[in-house]
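Example 3.
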Amino acid sequence: EAGVTQSPTHLIKTRGQQVTLRCSPISGHTSVYWYQQALGLGLQFLLWYDEGEERNRGNFPPRFSGRQFPNYSSELNVNALELEDSALYLCASILSGRAVNTQYFGPGTRLTVL
Amino acid sequence: GENVEQHPSTLSVQEGDSAVIKCTYSDSASNYFPWYKQELGKRPQLIIDIRSNVGEKKDQRIAVTLNKTAKHFSLHITETQPEDSAVYFCAARFSSGYSTLTFGKGTMLLVSP
């Protein structure tokens, strides 16, 4: 069974640009979480998509947004990039967002903002 | 707000020693507490979890204990090995967030041969 995949693996952008990150969940999983992992700050919850809908978002500004497609893959968009957006962005998939299930993480996308 | 505090931030032990990492949480209605291990450059992976109706769970050299009254849970690793070196994250599922997890800031465990 294939695990969670993310693309691209690395990305370098400059301040003010926009970026799109992609995540494909494990087959059969309908729920996707996005996290930001900045150095020394652990995993900060960004967004939760479940069956195509945004269900919850963390304490991040509106320039962080995303969507989930009918095949349950997901995109994270970050507009007007700032230096402090440099981080590892992880997505995790879960069998169903409406129950207590294990979150399985992807390998992440390393974003560097110059 | 919902919060998970994790201590210590770094932990150095000799191979064969035990390691203990402790987390406290703020929501007494929390009912699910997973632990993740993240090796350098790799994705976080679940190593053990516990639900609120259980006080302790073991899996070989790893155990987790939960004290609901005190609102804390701990990861215990016995007979540590160099390959246990990694960052460990605790997390809690709060009653308000469906499956959303709130993570601690992580503990870097270094096991010296």
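The longest strand of chain A covers residues 87-94. The interface with chain B takes residues 4, 31, 33, 35, 40-45, 48, 50, 55-56, 90, 94, 96-108 of chain A (CB under 8 Å).
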